[in-house]
Amino acid sequence: MLPWGAALAGRLDEHVIDSVLLRDNPLGDPAQRPLWVYLPPGYEDSTQRYPSVYVIQGYTGYLSMWRNRSPYRQPFPETADAVFAAGDVPPALVVFCDAWTAYGGSQFVDSPGTGRYHSYLCEEVVPFVDAHYRTLPEAAHRAISGKSSGGFGAMITPMLRPDVFGALASHAGDTLYELCYLAEFGKAVRHLRDYDGDIGAWWTDFRSRTAFTKPADETLLMMLGISACFSARDDGTPELPFDPHTGVLRAEVWQRWLDWDPVRMAPRYAEALRSLRAVWLDAGTRDEWYLDLGAQAFREELRAAGLPEQRVHFELFDATHRAIDYRYPLALAWLCRRIAEGA
After folding, report:
1. 43: which residues sit within 8 A by CB, 6+ positions away?
2. What three-state secondary structure class fits 253?
3. C-beta separation of 285 from 316 below 8 A
4. How many whole angstroms separate alpha carbon 174 and alpha carbon 177?
5. 11-174+262-339, what's its fold?
6. Would you tell me how many other CB atoms lie within 10 Å of the CB of residue 304?
7. Residue 156 and residue 121: Cα distance in Å, rounded?
8. For residues 119 and 134, what is the distance between their CA atoms, to the nearest angstrom?
9. Which of 175, 201, 218, 302 lies at a 20 to 30 A Cα distance from 296?
10. What is this structure's pTM?
11. Is the pLDDT of residue 256 over 80?
């Protein structure tokens, strides 16, 4: 495998969306956002309409990172292109979305702490793509896919908006919060000892120096950012779900986090889940945040909701949470075969 980029069989268009919904967001983040739309081979020479797969990123992800290269691996735009270049998968558009914030991410929800990123995706990005490209503009032919926080976004978005997305793929998506988040609270409290329990003091320090040069940075950035997404006060101030000095849970705040757990959301959105055409769930059996167990728990909720087994692909594989990007084209091909049905 050569260590530099190769020409695509399809085409990657780059756009900038001037978002109305993201203007004046609480963090002062840009309202103009990049958007990439991949067109499969043959798009220019046909008049047909195509299904679409929207791809969202994990925490701290931003759009240009899709071009990052790792040793002996190709970035996803190239492996996605290879899926369609082979000619045995129904062609589709692949839409690469940006939902970055100053805190590292938005969890793809609307929050007074970060902004209206869920609405941005569903009410601005999707209509933009449908208006500019020959898509099949129905939920049955539109999927959403992501890993980690992106996997969380992929699970909740079709629950909240089954009129927009009719299929999903979640690679080690955040869920089953008593396993994936609780252990991080203790780490955060220990790190906050150096800041007298004030995560705002850490944030000031973080912004004054090179990022990720202190052991606290990764944990506290996630705590601050997820709190801004899930448990911000009405004025936008993030509220931690635990006492920053003792680690004792703040029950009401923690409940706000649990209300966003896809496992716990599933019974409330059972009708939406039953309507899905396809669900891909996978995770590594050595995932550091136990998201393999979260994937199992979510699969059980799909069964309880009444989603037919033949619409679900569930797979655990030998891996940690990291470096599982080789799974993305597998899910892409599987989704495309299902959202193209009846096109």
Report:
1. 10, 11, 50, 91, 134
2. helix
3. yes
4. 8
5. Rossmann fold (3.40.50)
6. 12
7. 13
8. 22
9. 218
10. 0.97
11. yes
Are the C-beta atoms of 307 and 313 separated by less than 8 Å?
no
- Quick one: tokens of 323? 């470096």
Q: Pinpoint the residues of the chain covered by CATH 3.40.50.1820.
A: 11-174+262-339
pLDDT at 342 over 80: no
Structure tokens at 324: 């599982």
pLDDT, tens digit (0-9, with 9 covering 90-100), for 271-306: 999 999 999 999 999 999 999 999 999 999 999 999
- Residues 268, 274, 275, 281: is their CA dihedral positive or negative? positive
Q: How many CB atoms lie within 10 A of CB 313?
A: 17
Distance of CA 318 to CAs 81, 138, 287, 293, 330, Å?
Answer: 26, 36, 9, 14, 16
Nearest to 226 by CA among 195, 262, 201, 257: 257
Identify the pLDDT of residue 343.
59
pLDDT tens-place string over residues 79-111: 999 999 999 999 999 999 999 999 999 999 999
In sequence order, the 6+-apart residues with CB closer than 8 A to the CB of 162 are: 139, 271, 272, 275, 276
From 131, 103, 124, 334, select the one nearest 226 (Cα to Cα).
103
Radius of gyration of the chain from its Cα atoms, rounded to whole angstroms: 20
**pLDDT tens sequence across 197-235:** 999 999 999 999 999 999 999 999 999 999 999 999 999
Instruction: Say whether 139 sits in a helix, a strand or coil.
Output: helix
Residues 316, 282 contacting (CB under 8 angstroms): yes
